[in-house]
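A quick aside before the break. I want you to see a complete sequence-to-structure record at least once, exactly as it would be stored in a machine-readable document. Don't worry about memorizing anything.
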Amino acid sequence: MDPVIVTGAGPVGLTLALALARQEVPCVVLDEGPGKDEPRPARTVVLREDAVALVERLTGTPLAGLGSRWAGWRSMRRKQVTRVVEFDDADPAPLHIAQHELTAVLRGALDHEPLVKVAVDSRLDAVEQEKSGVTAHTRGATGTWWRGSYLVGCDGPRSTVRKLQDIRFPGRTAVERYAVAALRTELPWSDEALLHRMPPWRTAGPSAGEVVGRPLPDGVWRLDWLLPPGKDLVTPELLVNRVRETLTGWTDGSTPAYELLDTGVHTVHHRLARRWRVGRVLLAGDAAHLLGALGTQGLEEGLLDADNLAWKLALAWHHGPREALLDSYQEERRAAISARLRAADQLLPLLRGGGGLRSYVPGAARGNDALLADGHLGRGTLGEPGTYAASPLAPANLTGEVSVGTPAGAPVADVRVTAEDGTFVRLGSRLGRGALLVVLVAPGTGVWDRKHWVTAGVMPRLAAAVTALPHHAELLVAESYPGAAAHTVLLVRPDGHLVTALGGVRPADLYAAAESALGGAASGAAAAEEGRARRPGPVERAVPAVRPPLVPGRRTAGRGDHCPHGDAELTGPHRRALLRIVTDTCVRLWRRVHMDLVRYAGCVCRPSC
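That is the input. The structure line, written in tokens, reads:
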């Protein structure tokens, strides 16, 4: 199989390449830049705990030292503090980090990844696809043709991939504008973020009466001033005056010393691509959607795109295409983004507008401030990421399904579990490996050694059911899980979202849920591809091959293609490939027979079942 081509070397593209490589899928990243990002302290992102865990799991680098976790959040209106939020281990603060720091961590991890090749100064200008793969052409000093199995466009708001595939990108332009400054100074709240609405001091130039301050490491702050609707020019003099007025107002009359590091104007657009998949070409990140009404959270949704897409592409790469599984990427992620855009479009005019009858309702202003603060913190209607409750991969008609603290389609809690080798690990550390996770809730297993309970109770029967699943799965045991009773069985997707929770060991329901989570039963073509699938070769597989342009009507064979042979020519490696297909087919048939034995007559392959 040819490698997956990822266009765009921003955080989303680099995250997707790393996630695919961790599942042994080779990738080529086409970077139109020189391979190094310019430091921009005023360009930062706020990441929730699940996005931080994703990056740390892929890179092996803690992000806490590169960003800032706030001790609290303070909301103010005029001179009055309206709300204070304190963070702790049970309710961790989001991570505020400069985007160039995040990109540097991802690039450093890719430098040590043999399955990923980054091609710098490679600007995409043509994409052609056929049934067996994708061919992309880049221009520049090293312009060439690249052959891939799939192509994912992570090339930003002006995506070339999206334009070449003629995908519409409707939405709203300039929903909000912010004047942004990064500066080093000392403020009365050294480690607290601040939302200040209707500040009491007089401002020079256009103002919408709202400023947000977010701390970064080393005494650096990012300040955002909401600008009124329109296209008023933000001059350097106006921005410097705004900095001085704000610092003076926050320090009660005396302007503290400050060092201005970076400035800019951030314009927020709300757009959503009509389609995220065209055959073997897909979109992710800003190429597929633009979101970020509160200034810093658009990137997090792009990282969740990469996490959702990676395991589905890896399964298709290794075992043959599953159309329903690949289509579910668009249906799940587009629905989640659409819900957030809809909430922002409905609530922000009410929160920003003021006036009207609503302004006379007691407590309305405090309620508005609370909604805005929750949005900045990644909570509530404006900030909470969507779940996949209406996913096409959700199983239906399971007789043994029960409710737990995590709704179906939502990310699971990161509880402590016992792995198959007896070690204690966090559930989040087992994600992103391409395997389904089956978690048994068994109180007391954390006290006794694994050898005492691994062959007792329901464990042997559950182990047999897990072995018979249509895809590789890892069996884990948790001493407890929020809202789950003893002997509850959780089925978790490779990206950490809950498929279902079953009350006890129910092999038939578990098999049906796993098959549904994989997009349904594999078709005959996918089964044949699964037989041909093999581990990726050395890094040379990701080296581009110079190819002429595709001629209409002519089929260009990729390295994953198999030329037709007559019976007389079926010798050597072709005979071995056919034997591998037959062997894998027999294994799948045995799994189905074994599943029927478990379902109706009890397992007969081992006495302990």
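Two observations worth writing down. The chain has a mean pLDDT of 84. The first helix runs from residue 11 to 22. We'll return to this after the break.
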